[in-house]
Write a structure and sequence with these properties.
The protein is an alpha/beta fold and 281 residues long. The protein has eleven helices and nine strands.
Amino acid sequence: MKIIECPRDAMQGIKAFIPTEQKIAYINELLKVGFDTIDFGSFVSPKAVPQMSDTVEVLANLDIGNSTSKLLAIVANVRGAEDAAQHEQIRYLGFPLSLSETFQQRNTNKSIAEAMQQLAHIQDICHQHGKTLVTYLSMGFGNPYNDPWDAATVLRFVAELHQLQVEIISLSDTVGISSPEDISYLFTHLIPAFGSIEFGAHLHTTPAAWEEKVAAAYEAGCRRFDGALRGYGGCPMATDELTGNMPTENLIAYFENIGLNLNLNKAAFAAAMAQSSAVFS
């Protein structure tokens, strides 16, 4: 079981700039917990995402020497990937590839075809620098723009990524509209069909719907889950203001309740939970 903690996703939509020192302290606390990966920052235009403009400074001050967690940074184009790949501490580069043409344009100012070309170049950069590409299939369970979506479309995208030797694909419920039935169907069909790919679930949810989504993904074979403490963050395009990131504490409770040993430092987790209130206030 891999839990990926996503402070970057939680922070990036906040308009008020979170002081760099506060980000560093918070992520350093998260690094003590024992999460598989920390999605800590992004190498994107500061104009597009001002909150992440200090990613390089944050990275330089992270205490990763005594942590088992790997670092993941989001990139939106080849230039960002080239910049991120220069940093030895970063293990994963994450790229958002949308199944919705409208959202791809809004999110990265590119068409899906252009984004796929960029992704192929980013995969080459990852191979050259010993990084692993994580592709997020955003709007992976539908979209609010009436762009075409069905399970066959998801399978087609995954097949194209398989041709590029992408090793990790995270299905992203960007606006929190997935159903347990869709989650179960996709993971049940994708996991056995593409044995070389590790599939993850990046699920946004309302407070009432989180457990059925996690259960559907887990029972269908998913063993990689993204979350953010207290469910902070989420896509501003979601139609329900209660929709946010999957609360990490809920993931932990669910998996421990079914008997999994996650090997997490409970004291460090409690400290991070306490600190999150100040960071996101």
